[in-house]
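Here is one chain, start to finish.
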Amino acid sequence: MRRHLLKILGILLLVFAAAAGTLLYQGYFRYKREIEALPLKDAVDSYASKEDYVPYEELDEDFINAVIAVEDKRFFTRKGYDFVALARALYHDLQAGEVIEGGSTITEQIAKNLYLGGYINGMEEKIAGIYLLFDLEKHYSKQELLALYVNMNYYGDSYYGIAKAAEGYYDASVGDLTLAQAAMLAGLPNAPSIYQLSTGYEMAKQRQEWVLKTMQDNGWITEEERIEAMQEDTHPLNKP
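Its structure:
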């Protein structure tokens, strides 16, 4: 009986390995097609060369911390790649037979936005996104990647990029945001059609509260700062 179970297990492992190998092969060639059609530097420069692009050095510190809190808490401390998260997502996707877990890190989301239309449509694209992630992490610093990320994001109400969002919502430069404003803007790209401040302010306010609580839990702000920020009126219609 034991030998029979081991044989079945061995067969299942071989099937799984073959399926994984096929996916890696298909994903790699999808990645190669994307890179050959649009080299990585050209893709990044299509955003970085824009007149309103905000480099990392000009980003508000509270905004940086808010983005990290809401999107990828281990972004700066992670050495290499989040293989555990990638393996978990791939395992769940293989079980389901479809993509049910998307990119969970900032670099993965950049890869999707640059080459995959912002969405993962199948396992081939997911694997291609992982290869793209490796390329991004190899050629760009974490600071450069974070700047790229916030400059390519959509913040609702026709505001693409953090510079336009800060100016459009609050008549402010990115370096002059208050803590409350920074936390509000950091939460919008997750679902801009829902959280955009013209129509979804109450939902955005709830997300802002979660961002601020996460920032406090990580030691980036105090409880007093969190409470004060939540009390600030951040509705764009009420801006000074």
